[in-house]
Amino acid sequence: MKQAVLSNFDLPWIPLTGLILFVFCFAAYTYWTFTRENKVIYQKASLIPLEDPIKASAREGGNTK
Q1: Alpha-carbon torsion 44, 48, 52, 54, what sign?
Q2: Which of 2, 17, 43, 47 has the lowest CB atom count within 10 Å?
Q3: CA dist 40 to 45, 56, 57, Å?
């Protein structure tokens, strides 16, 4: 059945367009991730698990109870 469907598939531009779109988006997101301007954002984000939530809440003026 699969062979019969694929043998009658006459729209090869659809998977090719999907592949090109995927490669373009992957390259754009990879470039955006590794640009120098975003280094500060990722350094701050990498320290989030190490922060003490009580101290962070007090620093922001939140309730410490």
Answers
A1: positive
A2: 2
A3: 9, 19, 22
Cβ atoms of 35 and 41 within 8 Å: the answer is no
Do 64 and 57 form a contact (C-beta atoms < 8 A)? yes
Is the C-alpha dihedral spanning 7, 8, 11, 14 positive or negative? negative
Q: Return d(Cα 37, Cα 17) in angstroms, integer.
A: 31
Instruction: Give the N- to C-terminal CA distance of the chain in Å, as an integer.
Output: 65
Count CB atoms within 10 A of the CB of residue 23.
10
The confidence score (pLDDT) of residue 50 equals 86
CB 31 within 8 A of CB 41: no
